Amino acid sequence: MTSSGRWPLGVHTSVAGGLWKAVDGAVDLGCDAMQIFARNPRSWADAPLSSQTVSLFRKAREEAGLWPVAVHTTYLINLCAPDPDIYEKSIILFQSELRSSEALGADYLVTHLGSPKDMGIPFAMERVKASLKAVADAGLGRATKILLENTSGAGTGFGADLADIAELLDAASSFGLEAGLCADTCHGFAAGYAVSGSKGTDGFVASIEASVGLERLKLIHLNDSKGKLGSKLDRHENIGRGEIGIDGITSFLLDERIAGMPLILETPKKTPDDDPENLRIVRSIISGAKRKKG
């Protein structure tokens, strides 16, 4: 738990109407934490944030007392793209996203690793390492920490094995970057990690502890999964309505090794009731975990 006894919980929040409006949305849902896109997630368009936007966001976030605040990179960034033009554009936009995140005072910038297409995992590893070194050489990635997100294993399988993440984090450390892991439960389950197996060698928490180290786990994307265990299907589902299920999610959250770890929901938003209901369920589980610990 945090020093205040809170277990930070939030959702990926809409920035419609302005980035600072996302803070209002998080507060209205009773969130302690939040995640946003700082720009259009499906566009290469790159422009610095205005001083007014930065000022309004920082003021709203301070008044709300949210922690942590995470920014998620755009979907187009591919830090291991074999195409040299896409790779260069990805590095440039990644660094711009870091500058924006630091300007906003965000704690974390979460990024997908990308796909090497037919070039294989060793190629991908070297590409991402070079991307991280470029960030370090530019003096970025310190005020806002980079978090690498595990993958479902679709395509080449790059990033599904937590050992891949561990190697990349070791490289980042050698460049002077204090990067970490953002662990997505849907992705982990789809990659073959039994999320509910907290006491077994195949359990997600145990696997993170063994491969990456729990000290480098900074954020959890808490999502149920439409796909079955090991399906490699990256399709998020509402809490308790997927293949992980309410028992699996509960078992995961009751693992004392991750007690108090910030949770961000990226569950479907098909109706206005989806976020409140998912948050209600998770809060109920967390409340039970606190009672059990007490």
If you had to describe this structure to a student in words, what would you say it looks like?
This protein is of the alpha/beta class and 294 residues long. The chain has a single domain, classed as TIM Barrel, CATH 3.20.20.150. The chain is 40% helix and 13% strand. The protein is built from nine helices and ten strands. The protein has helices at 21-28, 51-64, 84-104, 121-137, 162-174, 185-191, 204-211, 245-253, 274-293, and strands at 9-12, 33-36, 69-72, 108-111, 145-149, 180-184, 217-221, 224-225, 236-237, 263-265. The strands form two sheets. It has an eight-stranded parallel barrel with strand order 1-2-3-4-5-6-7-10, surrounded by four helices. A two-stranded antiparallel sheet has the order 8-9. The longest helix is centred in the first third of the chain and has 21 residues, at 84-104. The radius of gyration is 18 Å and the shape is globular. The two termini are 12 Å apart. The mean pLDDT is 94.
